[in-house]
Design goal:
heterodimer; A: 317 residues; alpha/beta; ten-stranded mixed sheet; two-stranded parallel ribbon; B: mainly alpha; MetI-like fold; two-stranded antiparallel ribbon; 14 helices; 1% strand
């Protein structure tokens, strides 16, 4: 059985029909956190494996909390997993990467979902956590169609987001004011984008939205708007922008020709119990990586021809 | 002799027994105790919950100043909000919150008072049959729906009307206006109905017209109640998170005008909480924002009590 607790206010839809959690989910997080604390004590003491019965007896309780970008995949994979292991209770919740990392560090949940490396987050002791990379997400700048922009130089993109360029005509578009839509500070998507594009410079203060879905809707409807989104959120109302002539495609991410991408992590603390280990193994299996991951707009970890570490150093596989 | 002695003893025993019986609690008394016990228990639990919440928010909220050693003055007067870089000037959010609150109250009050007068003085019948249900309906609509309507209708409308992105204080004011209207209206209706009938009769008997009676007698004597209604409306506007967050743009910059994106204490809280880690400055700073919200709602409550007291004095004169 899989219980997916979403806040109810799923307003905006992802391209693949996967709904994204919105505000309500964060409010629900409070309640969820409390119930976790209550449940947490009795967590996942993986079935006192009764006399000799082997993998059949896999049971226990797995809770995965965190990144909303990973949530749809984790929920779908979790549903498939529990269909095969009916004695395992698997709960997938959103709440944000920060919540995922701090909850797993506190030992309140079995898996902390995150868009960013634990090393990148202040207040997280990364050496206490074990990283399991389960997918890759490519992100690209998106602009409103009216702006007339299809390609930008990396330097121009940086100048736009630092507030040096304020009109689209300066980069070959329409005479239209640039409206920057950022993700919230501390968001994994924003961190990935800023690492790749701004490289340490601070972004200009601007509007902030707290989900991919909100960004998708607002950029689509606001003239002159620019933001950045995971590939799976592209729609025909948005113009995904190429950078230095490189188009944002899965293939370009796999070879690192497209620089803005990040792993989706599932972090565990200490030695995970049997059910959690089995689920993580399932996430890495061909079943998930070759079909589910691709179907849902992510990039398979198996297809990557490069690897990136927490410091952003890229090496060939 | 022995006989009497025996009788005396018997009498003694009897009176003792009566003594015990009379002093024993009756069933009614025990019910009384039980009832009292239950209500004390409930009150105790509520006091415990409230006290621990106050303690929790306060202790978390002051951590910014005690652990991270940010000066209170810098927090309250700073205009640079970038918690990831260690800058936590909360003034833009404080100003934003007050701006939307006052603007919404100023816009909503005339409508609310007008509606209330219609419902109590002009057409009580229609008021009860038509307006009452409509207003109750407005109360029941969840705030996410208001926010969504704001995002889909108010924001584009403002964009066409005044330009810019459409996100900003004015859009938030519009949404909050509709949200606080029922609060202010119902409470104003109550206070108008509470005006003693003989005030009205005396005024009419003296030859005052209906309008003179309403404006100079009824509204005048209901003023404390109306003010209370407005403050309750403001408290609701101040604490509203979701709907405001969807239309204000969440830009942590000092609002320069009503049409540029701004942010409020609540919108910043809901946007940021999922991406921060317990115990770090960005997280503590959000708790400090929550503490401001808490103090403000205490202030609103105190204000209501103060006005109620003043009102009583006035009636006594």
């Amino acid at each position: 059985m899989l219980s997916l607790r979403s806040g109810g206010s799923t307003i905006l839809k992802k391209r693949h029909g996967v709904t994204e959690m919105n505000k309500g989910s964060k409010l629900a997080m409070g309640i969820a956190a409390i119930s976790l604390l209550l449940v947490g004590c009795g967590k996942a003491t993986s079935s006192s494996s009764s006399k000799g019965s082997s993998s059949e007896a896999l049971s226990g309780k797995v809770t995965a909390v965190g990144s909303t970008a990973l949530q749809p995949l984790a929920a779908k994979a979790g549903a498939n997993f529990t269909a095969k292991n009916s004695k395992v209770t698997l709960t997938v919740q959103g709440g944000g990467s920060g919540t995922g990392l701090s909850q797993v560090q506190a030992g309140a949940v079995s898996i902390g979902d995150s868009d960013i490396f634990a090393e990148e987050k202040d207040g997280i002791k990364a050496d206490k956590l074990t990283d399991h990379k389960v997918a890759v997400v490519g992100m690209a700048p998106v602009v409103n169609k009216d702006a007339g922009i299809k390609n930008l130089k990396m330097a121009q993109l940086k100048q736009i987001f630092t507030g040096k360029i304020t009109n689209w005509k300066e980069v070959g578009g329409k005479d239209q004011k640039i409206v920057i839509i950022n993700r919230a500070q501390g968001s994994g998507t924003r961190a990935t984008f800023e690492n790749a594009v701004l490289k340490g410079t601070d972004a200009v203060k601007s509007q902030e939205q707290d989900s991919n879905g909100a960004v998708q809707k607002i950029v689509g409807s606001t003239p002159g708007a620019v933001s950045y989104l995971a590939f799976s959120y592209f729609t025909n109302k948005l113009q995904a922008v190429s950078i230095d002539g490189v188009t944002p495609t899965d293939n370009n991410v796999e070879t690192n020709k497209w620089k803005i991408w990040s792993y989706e992590h599932m972090y565990t603390k200490g030695t995970p119990d049997k059910a959690t280990t089995a689920f993580l193994k399932y996430m890495d299996s061909k079943d998930v990586q070759d079909s589910l991951v691709k179907d849902m707009g992510y990039i398979s970890i198996h297809d990557m021809k490069v690897a990136k570490d927490a410091k952003g150093t890229v090496t060939q596989n | 002799m022995e006989q009497t002695n025996f009788q005396l003893k018997k009498q003694d025993a009897q009176s003792h027994e009566w003594d015990v019986r009379l002093h024993r609690a009756t069933r009614a008394t025990r019910e009384d105790w039980l009832g009292r016990g239950i209500s004390y228990l409930c009150i105790g639990v509520i006091i415990l919950v409230v006290a621990s919440m106050l303690w929790f928010i306060t202790s978390k909220g002051i951590a910014t100043f005690t652990q991270n050693h940010v000066s209170l003055w810098k927090f309250l007067s700073g205009t640079n909000w970038a918690p990831d870089q260690g800058n936590i000037g909360a003034l833009p959010m404080i100003v934003g919150s007050f701006a939307v609150t006052f603007a919404a109250a100023i816009v909503a009050t005339p409508f609310a008072v007008g509606t209330a007068i219609f419902m109590t003085e002009i057409s009580p019948n229609k008021g009860r049959k038509v307006l009452q249900p409509v207003i109750e309906l407005l109360v029941g609509i969840p705030s996410v729906v208001y926010g969504f309507i704001g995002l889909a209708v108010v924001v584009p409308f403002m964009r066409h009307l005044v330009g810019g992105s459409g996100f900003g204080i004015i859009s938030a004011t519009f949404v909050l206006f509709v949200m606080v209207l029922p609060t202010i209206t119902t409470m104003t209706v109550d206070s108008l109905r509470a005006v003693p009938r003989h005030y009205k009769e005396a005024s009419l008997a003296l030859g005052a017209t209906r309008w003179q009676t309403v404006s100079r007698v009824i509204l005048r004597s209901a003023t404390p109640g109306i003010l209370t209604a407005v403050i309750f409306g403001m408290a609701r506007a101040f604490g509203e998170a979701l709907a405001v967050q969807m239309v204000i743009g969440n830009a942590a910059i000092m609002p320069k005008n009503l049409i540029s994106p701004a942010s409020t204490l609540t919108s910043q809280l809901t946007t940021g909480i999922g991406d921060t880690i317990d115990g770090t400055l960005p997280n503590n700073a959000l708790w400090s924002l929550a503490l401001i919200l808490l103090l403000m709602s205490l202030f609103f409550n105190a204000l209501v009590r103060f006005i109620a007291k003043r009102g009583q004095l006035k009636n006594g004169r």
